[in-house]
Amino acid sequence: MSGSDQDSYVVNLFAPTRRLTRSVAVGDVVIGGDAPIVVQSMTNTDTMDTKATADQIERLVQADCPIVRVTAPSIRDAENLAEISRELKARHIHVPLVADIHFTPNAAMVAAQHVAKVRVNPGNYADKKRFEVREYSDAEYTAELERVAERFRPLVQRCQQNGVAMRIGTNHGSLSDRIMNRFGDTPEGMVASALEFLDVCEGEGYHDVVFSMKASNTQVAIQAYRLLAARLEVRAPGEPGYPLHVGVTEAGDGEDGRIKSAIGIGSLLEDGLGDTIRVSLTEDPVKEVPVARALADRAHRRWFADGLAAELDPRPIPVSASDAPPPFSHVVRPTATLTTPGLAFGGEEPLRVEIDLGRALPYAEAVAAKVATALALQTDVAAEGLSVRVAVASEIPKLAVFRGELERLGVELPLSLRAPVELIPDVLVAAIPLPGRIVVEVEPESRPETVDAAAEEAHRRGVALEWCLRGERADLPKLAEEALRVSRASGDDHPAFSVDSGRMTHSVRVLSSALKGLGADACPIVLRHFRMEDQTDEEALLDAAIDLGAPLCDGVGDLVSLARFGDPLAAVDASYRILQGARRRTTRTEYISCPSCGRTLFDLEETTALIKSRTEHLTGLKIAVMGCIVNGPGEMADADFGYVGSGVGQVSLYVGKDVVARAVPQAEAPDRLVDLIREHGRWRDPEPSPDPDD
Ligand code: SF4
To answer: How far is the CA of 600 from the centre of ligand 1 (A)?
Structure first.
């Protein structure tokens, strides 16, 4: 897309404003329009087992899930959807069902008689995936398109006749060979694949369509949804677009699954994109609902609160959309290296992790002890810096106490100090030895002479400077300009910048755009997240994943700093998981595991846990654990090794996309997988865990 399309996917680049969509009825649940975000989930029972499926749907409905998807891998399964509906009716459970279709148009035709919505995957509706490399001439490509349309049109007509909605659900890992050969497995290919199907729908005058663009790679998912929104805008400028079903596929389980989902879904909701969401976890589907509900609630609050804030503060934000990070491709913002004693970040350095202990000085001894204990328990990933805030002048004498305690306890991490601008000279005088970096908090009300004095003192003592801008988004460009002027006057062209904001995603976007407009694109950006007081641990984790993950996926950020996260060890762990979830720094094995469904051939949750226990000490590997051979190999996208159910009690093992062992008995498969990793030179033996009593 051209530079002028930079913001065509979004209502407002610098505020979370909902994209206007048309309403699509799924039974009596409305997706899109003014309707709140609809949470949905999917059963993982055998669709032919009416009771088990109805039981699970009942549990999902009780968990407040208003739409449920059920797989229909065969005509028999599709026919059994009628039985499931009858069973639900007998139990007085009223919930629209969605049939999930891959490879089986005949099953789709049957399902469209029994459900409120049908999901089709354009990558496999009328194509078999053969992983073939083949050039298509334009004539061959057009002929293929016509063949696909012929296969698809009857379903469109049936859905139209029956008042059934449809999701055109593209997956990054299951694009057709035809699309792959023309576009590669790119967001561009995903969007092209979906729009080919939309052409058929619109050709029939059928518009009850919802789209999804799922990928397990959060960056790819975000780019694909944005690109689709932009393309839909080009097709019908100014018209309400088709609603979006937003999700990250094969997100895995536990904290990683939640973090990946929050990064992908949450970033898109921040962009105002998303009318219905599904969090895909390799867990009981009922556990997906509260996570999705938390993401939806946050988006509702932000869409509403920001609308209100815009009314109260209608000042324009003086930055150009063309200076914002590119939305449809991943380009890491190139920055200068900021080298401080013990910690360098920006430039070619890996993204760094610092723990922000916040206002720790009043409790200096206790916090130092907590940090020392936490750091002793660190295993494979470690904090690379500590940060403390000096909030008022009376805390300054406590600095020496705190540092003395850290030293006594053997904590040697580089320390940065954060303080309001007017305290900076006194903090620097008292801080002996000097901190690695001084973080200067400036606000619109900060007096210019204090800003000058802070920069001069830092410069005189040779301490690296980070400007932490505190203000509304409309204030940030001016604050950045003033801070930059002062730094440049003292010979520092590349100070670091950060924002202290409750609206992190957009404030960072304003900051990075403002810096680019000021010719200061090389200034490193520190991503700071401040936990809110009344949050549960899970809410805090989801919030941090969105606030840090959204800019990280946009290529912005050189150091992350989680503040008030409670246990320092939890902050370090969450930071590295977020960096990995955003695919910006890999420190562990990544698991791409499907949520399981009626096709699944083994207990996916148990199997994933087993494989994790054998391999999670490895670094930089992607291991896929997929429930079935029909979709698994296609969906595992860029995994290095794959463990895929291929029959009852049997597993196929993959290296990349190549199957290297078939029909391996399930009991032997984890060992065979480890052997494979070893044979490919990617194995190392686990290290013994540190003993905290040592
Ligand atoms: S890969 Fe997993 S979720 Fe996808 S169809 Fe197969 S079993 Fe179902």
So the answer is: 6
Task: Name the closest-CA residue to atom 8, ligand 1.
Answer: 597
Place of tokens 């105002």: 272
Lowest mean pLDDT of 320-329, 483-492, 684-693, name the range: 684-693
| pLDDT interval class at 647 (50, 70, 90) | confident
CB 594 less than 6 A from any atom of ligand 1: yes
Q: What does the DSSP assignment read for 390-436?
A: --SGGGTTHHHHHHHHHHHTT----EEEEEEGGGHHHHHHH-SSPPS
Distance 661 CA to ligand 1 centre (A): 20
Cα 98 to Cα 26, 112, 250, 303, 632: the distances in Å are 9, 9, 19, 28, 21
Residue nearest ligand 1's atom 6 by CA:
628
Class of residue 616 by CB neighbours under 10 A (exposed 0-12, middle 13-18, buried 19+):
middle
Q: What is the mean pLDDT of residues 427-439?
A: 93
Q: For residue 547, name the pLDDT band (cuts at 50, 70, 90).
A: very high
Quickly tell me which residue has 């088990």 as its tokens: 52
Residues 323-346 have pLDDT tens digits of 999 999 999 999 999 999 999 999
Quick: pLDDT tens for 469-486. Answer: 999 999 999 999 999 999
CB of residue 626 inside a 6 A radius of ligand 1 = yes
Residue 628 CB less than 6 A away from ligand 1? yes
Residue 342 identity: G
- Name which of 236, 260, 239 is nearest 249 in CA terms: 260
Q: Whose CA is nearest to atom 1 of ligand 1?
A: 632
pLDDT number for residue 694: 42
Q: Say if ligand 1 is within 6 A of residue 598 CB.
A: no
Our answer on whether the CB atom of 635 is closer than 6 Å to any ligand 1 atom is: yes
- Please determine, for residue 62, whether its predicted confidence score (pLDDT) is greater than 80: yes
- The residue whose CA has the least distance to atom 4 of ligand 1 is 631
Going across the sheet that includes 622-626, the strands are 590-593, 622-626, 641-647, 650-655, 658-665
Q: Is the CB of 45 under 6 A from ligand 1?
A: no
